[in-house]
Amino acid sequence: MMTNEKPWFLSKTVWASIVTILLSCSSFFHISTDGIDQGSLTDTIIEFVTALSGIVALFGRVSATTLITRKEI
């Protein structure tokens, strides 16, 4: 049973599925995928999304106008 939760965009399975779908649809756009390693592409996309989410989080905290507080239990 899974008890840990994470956002969808941190799932390697989701990103691998997205890459698979995009590669399979590439023929519609006449894009050659002969030289593309699907595993490497998935890893690159995951690294990019991780960096992007870090940038967004940092920007969000810097531009925030409210304090982060801890609620006492």
Topology of this protein?
Elements: H1 12-25, H2 38-62
Helix pairs in contact: 1-2
Word description of this protein:
With 73 residues, the chain is mostly helical. The protein has two helices and no strands. α1 crosses α2. The two termini are 28 Å apart. The model has no long low-confidence stretch (mean pLDDT 78).
Number of strands: 0
Helix/strand/pairing category = mainly alpha
- What Rg, in angstroms, do the CA atoms define? 18 Å
Contiguous low-pLDDT stretches (5 residues minimum) are: none
Shape: elongated
The span between the termini is: 28 Å
Instruction: Characterize the main sheet.
Output: none
Percent strand equals: under 5%
The count of helical stretches stands at 2
Order of helices and strands: HH
Q: Give the proportion of residues in helices.
A: 40-55%
The residue-averaged pLDDT reads 78
Quickly describe the structure.
By secondary structure, the chain is an all-alpha fold. 53% of the residues lie in helices and 0% in strands. The protein has helices at residues 12-25, 38-62.
Top keywords for this entry?
mainly alpha
